[in-house]
Amino acid sequence: MGETTVTTLEGREAPTTSPIAEDRGGRTGRGRLDAVHRLRTPRRPRLWFEILLIAVSYWTYSLIRNAVPEQKAQALRNADWIWSVEQHLGIAFERSVNHAVDSVTWLIVGMNYYYATLHFVITLGVLVWLFRYHPGRYAAVRLALFATTAVALVGYYFYPLAPPRLMTGGHFIDTVAVHETWGSMASGNLKNMSNQYAAMPSMHIGWSLWCGLTIFALASVPWVRVLGLLYPALTLLVIVSTANHFWLDAVGGMICLAFGFLVARLWYGALPHALPRQVGGELQGAP
């Protein structure tokens, strides 16, 4: 079925495709292309779906991150190697920063709470802002965030790394433990609930830089754009002052974010800020 025969000059019959079969194949191919096109076209996000997606995604991320084997010996060896590399590069200032900031009690206590809370609060706040005021760009920016987080899990699995505060003989101060503040899932009574050796890459930097670049690219108020850039810079100071990360952990977070934006660029055909702000009529001009 689907084929007819024609007689050639030599008298032999040769099959030829039926127009009906061609039509079916064409319609199937076009249907697949249309489905892919719809997936790659920004649409107005649905609130219930986004809440469910973010909740499930973060639960999955936490589950996988904490399921990675805590390879303590390897993590400590990697920390020693990172520390020696930074000393060779002349950027091993983490311990000096850690001790200097720890000497100012109110400052380090504030940083402990900053480390524990703003990582989630501001990221969610930016997502809500995008959902409300930039629906046409929301899906692309969210995809960049999700891809950034997903690739970080690969780093946690293949490169266990102890934070500076857990180094043997590193003489770093665990500021949460010393000041008895609630500030880290990896310190105090909560340390058994989190993988303490998932420090590379730093998602505090990956997420805060995602927030900062998104705000800088899309906000219309100048001082808000400046705050957007200050946020990841301050986060970098906090993760070092609290001895939760090395400088190079932050570089790892930046690389993950670059990968996330590359995924969004390849999927939507443009970086998020270049997509239309709204969906609907303006979408005709989207790349």
Features of the shown structure:
disordered C terminus, single chain, disordered N terminus, two-stranded antiparallel sheet, globular, 287 residues
Task: Give a written overview of the molecule.
The chain has 287 residues and is mainly alpha-helical. Helix content is 64%, strand content 3%. It is globular and about 65 Å long. The chain starts with a strand and ends in a 19-residue tail after the last helix.
Strand content: under 5%
Shape: globular
Order of helices and strands: EEHHHHHHHHHH
What number is the mean pLDDT?
Answer: 83
Query: What is the C-alpha radius of gyration, as a whole number of Å?
Result: 25 Å
Number of strands: 2
Number of alpha- plus pi-helical segments: 10
Unreliable spans are 1-10, 281-287
Strand order of the largest sheet: 1-2
Which secondary-structure class do the elements indicate? mainly alpha
Distance between the termini: 42 Å
Largest sheet: 2 strands, antiparallel
Helix content: 55-70%
